[in-house]
Structure formats: structure tokens, C-alpha cells
Amino acid sequence: MVEDVREGALVILHCGNPREKMWGEVLRLDEVGVVLRGLDLETVEDWLRQERAGAERLIGPTTFFVPMHRVLRIDLDQTGPAVESYGDRFLAACGRDVREALQEHPGNDA
Question: What local confidence, expressed as pLDDT, does residue 87 receive?
Fold first, then answer.
């Protein structure tokens, strides 16, 4: 089954000017840009450890808009032969779908 880059997909977003990578769930994708609920790629590992430990929430996902002129590439967050996706790693570590955790707001006891 082929999964498309669309609303609800977990992706890694590569941006230019400035160069950065973000990971999260696509909330909207159109010719204007991408709305993502997620984190800077550099903080995903720390967030996963925090969620796995049930620690105080110091790092959390945010919702952000990236205009299309900054988007260089969008990769699906998929497990391959040599690497496990962030979504699958979260499920294995925390026992729940990462999309649930992405939609939680700081301060909620969900």
C-alpha cells in the first residue's frame, strides 16, 4: 500500500532560508504552505524520552506554518530496512499512537 503525503501523514519537512528540519503530523498541505503539528527534528529524541518516562513536560509539540517557498522536500516518516520511523519508535516505547501525543496540549492530563 502506498501512502501519500497528505493531511494526517507523519512527515519530515526539510526547509530552506533558514535550513531546518521539522517532524510531525500534516494538518494542512496546499499551494500556500504546510501546517504541521510537531517539533524541530533535533528535539524529537528528547521528547520521546520524556514521554516514555512520563516526566514533566518540558518539551512539547507545537503547531506551525511553513510557507511553500521555504519547503525543499517532504519525506514520509516510514520504517525502512535500516531505520525505524519516529512514529513506530514512539508506539514501541510509549504504547500508544504518536498522533494522540501530538494533539495533547501542555497542561492537559491526557
Answer: 96
**Where do the domains of the chain lie?**
10-103
Q: In 3D, which of 16, 2, 26, 10 has the Cα closest to residue 73?
A: 16
Average of per-residue pLDDT values in the chain: 90
Q: For residue 61, what is its C-alpha cell? A: 509539540
- What backbone phi and psi angles, to 5 degrees, belong to 32? -80, -40
Cell of 73: 522536500
Say what the pTM is. Answer: 0.88
In the block, cell 504552505 appears at 33
Residue 76 grid cell: 514520509
Q: Specify burial of residue 17 (Cβ count, 10 A radius: 0-12, 13-18, 19+).
A: exposed
